[in-house]
Amino acid sequence: MTDYETLAALGFTEPAAKTSEAGPLPQQSRPEGVSGARENVEFPSRRSLRNAAPAPAAGAAVPTPTPAQPGSRRAAREALSSPVQSPGPAPTFTESTPRIPAFTATMPQVAAPFGTFDATPASGDTAGRERGRRSGRSAAAPAVARPSSTHGTRKRLSVAGTMVLVGGLFVSLTLPAYASTETPDVIADVAAKADGQVLALDKAAVDTASVTSDTRDGYDSTSASDLKRLYRDALRQRNIQMYLASGAKELGDDYPWATELSRSQGGGLSPLRYYVRECVDFVAWRLNRDAGSTHAPFKWDWSSLTPGGGSAHSWKSQWDKHGWPTSTTPAAGWVAWFPGANHVAYVNSVLPDGSVLIEEYNWGPEIYGQRIIPASSAIYLSPPPA
Q1: Could you list the residue range(s) of the whole structural domain that residue 7 is in?
Q2: In sequence order, what DSSP letters do the residues of 166-225 get, joined into one string?
Q3: Run of H or E residues at 228
Q4: Could you report the per-residue pLDDT of 177-226, keeping only the tens digit for each?
Q5: CATH number for the domain including 345?
Q6: C-alpha 36: how far from chain center
Q7: Within a domain: residue 376?
Q8: What is the pLDDT of residues 58-80, one digit of tens each?
Q9: Between β-strands 356-361 and 343-350, what pairing exists: parallel, antiparallel or unpaired?
Q10: Number of folded domains that form the chain
Q11: Residue 347 and residue 370: Cα distance in Å, rounded?
Q12: Where are the bilayer-spanning segments (predicted)?
């Protein structure tokens, strides 16, 4: 039955034709037997129309509904709204009943119409729940099993055990490190024996007076002082070789510290308190030798000869302060002082031509040497009085 037939059977007519500024709009075609017009009629829902339809009069002809097209939504609604037939009792099989091989029938999927399902899917029926969701009605949720009393008891026991374990850990951490299972009497006895022990060291084992070098795990290492001493010995050996090669000893050099380290080699002062192998130290040695003082304590040193300074530049002024004689005429045993040259030498002798033979140190590279100079090139300082 079409919508127009339903409205005609209920006594309703279609709404009046609508008009516009251009004129009346064309009306929809309607089937035969439906006539008349009724203005401002709103169509109710189909369900309310079906519920409000009057029962047909006795003897009245009931129109036969038009069968639905297969596969349409109407056919699906009629199929779903029809009562479900009970499958009946299950057949009984015996040994003589022939068995039919199992097979899987492939059924075509039919789109679910807009409707409801009377049957509630089982808890494991996922397809049923999906069909219910598509139809607008959620499937019944499966029943959730409540935890039993046994599970709750087990959980409470687990929590209690955890608390006891954590408390035990804290107790074990706070125990003293000297805790012992021995009785107090035994502990006191052991402590008394330990207090009575005396640590004895073998003096011979710890005596380090005879050790000359550091020892580390069986390996001997040379200390810094030993390295310095070895370096100084090597320089001294080189000075000896240079001195012997120079022929200074054969020339008459008697300076006692001829091979000691000079100031440029890291050397220090001689017993005369001048720098070793300097011109002033050599001349001071010769003045002491001529006075008969060849060993300590020497008669003349820095403090008695030139207390105002050790440099050769100050020797002339120091002689003037002492009141010792100075002259431009040379003599053997006197000091040749070179003005402006910061140098002094020992006068060995005066040659027949008036020139002067001098002996000196450090005119060359800190070694002994002899020269002949004009008498006018120096000022001569007399030896200190005896």
Answers
A1: 1-16+31-49
A2: HHHHHHHHTS-TT--SS-HHHHHHHHHHHHT------HHHH--TT--SEEETTEEE--HH
A3: helix 224-246
A4: 444 445 556 555 655 555 555 545 455 444 555 545 555 556 667 899 89
A5: 3.90.1720.10
A6: 96
A7: yes
A8: 655 556 666 667 767 777 777 77
A9: antiparallel
A10: 2
A11: 10
A12: none
